[in-house]
Each structure stands twice: as C-alpha cells, then as structure tokens.
Amino acid sequence: xxxxxxxxxxxxxxxxxxxxxxxxxxxxxxxxxxxxxxxxxxxxxxxxxxxxxxxxxxxxxxxxxxxxxxxxxxxxxxxxxxxxxxxxxxxxxxxxxxxxxxxxxxxxxxxxxxxxxxxxxxxxxxxxxxxxxxxxxxxxxxxxxxxxxxxxxxxxxxxxxxxxxxxxxxxxxxxxxxxxxxxxxxxxxxxxxxxxxxxxxxxxxxxxxx
Length: 210
Known about the structure:
Layout: H1 3-9, E1 10-22, E2 36-40, H2 44-57, H3 69-75, E3 88-96, E4 99-108, E5 120-128, H4 132-148, E6 153-156, E7 169-172, H5 188-196, E8 199-209
Parallel strand pairs: 5-6
Antiparallel strand pairs: 1-6, 1-7, 1-8, 2-3, 3-4, 4-5
C-alpha cells in the first residue's frame, strides 16, 4: 500500500487534546482532603504503588494496552533521560486509607517555554479514580510544586520527553484499542481536567490505518 492509499483508507481512531492552564487561581481546599494524603514518590514501595495504579483503573477495560514498566521508568531515570540536565521532575501518589487512588508527575524543561513570554511547566502520567476531590488534590499538589519552581502556566497531560509518547488526553473514541505509547484514559478524565479549569490548547487526530 503506497502513502496515498494509506491516507485515503485511514480511519480516524481517536482524538487527543493538550490541555493548558495559566496560574490564575488559588488552590482548591476541601475538608475531604483530611482523609487523603499525598506522598512524594521516592521509596521502592511508593514507586511500586505508583506504577501499579493503572492496572487497577483499567482492570476491566479491554481496550487498554499497558505500557512496559521499564519504558515508564526510563522517563524518571536521570541516567536515561537527558532532560534532567536542564529540567526537573517529581511524581506524587495520592492515598486514601492507605490505598493509592491517584498519581501525577510534575516537571519543567526549557523546550516547554520556547517562543513564549512566560515559563511553562508540565504535568503528566495522571491516573485517578473517578473522584473530583482526589483529582483536584493531585492538580493542586503538582501546580504548587511548579509554582515553587518559578513556573507561570502548565500544559498537560504531557511527557517529560518527546511528543511521540505519553502525550495528550483522549477525548473521543473509547471503543477501539489504544496504541502502545499513546495515552489512553477513561472518558471521565476530561471532566476532571475541565472542572479544575484546564482548557484545550490544541487537538491532535490519531489515525489507525486499516
């Protein structure tokens, strides 16, 4: 099949949106936070919890393709990821009654702010149960860290790396199997991001050639 026929026969598989937000808000406060705790992920047990959460979120979703754990860990390994030379990254786990219910990573590197007149940070690898308070707690934590690093806006969910992997929020087509290294998420994630105040920055269509 040549390139022309590939494009002609391509099927729109799904749409991902990059969500962006300027820091024009005060962090959300809610009494339910009292029974939730956020941990900066550093210890082996916390890393195991953080890595294992997607298997709980998607355990009944036949369209989810799990990422290899070693591919994810390369993103967080200063020896493998050269962006650590000019940027910084942290990851957080959210617990309720000692059970992990959410995770997120926050980071910044110069390329994110290129051609902009303000400093942009990123968040990614977000996973969370269908609970707005839990999601807001994760967003608050990530954004407070970014603000402490001098960031003025945030894009997400994106990757601490190139755009060919772990990038964007799935907003359409939850019935076809996802592609490896492409972000996949439940439909309710869009509402969690938008309820917090994130807005679509740009849309990207991903095609599945038949």
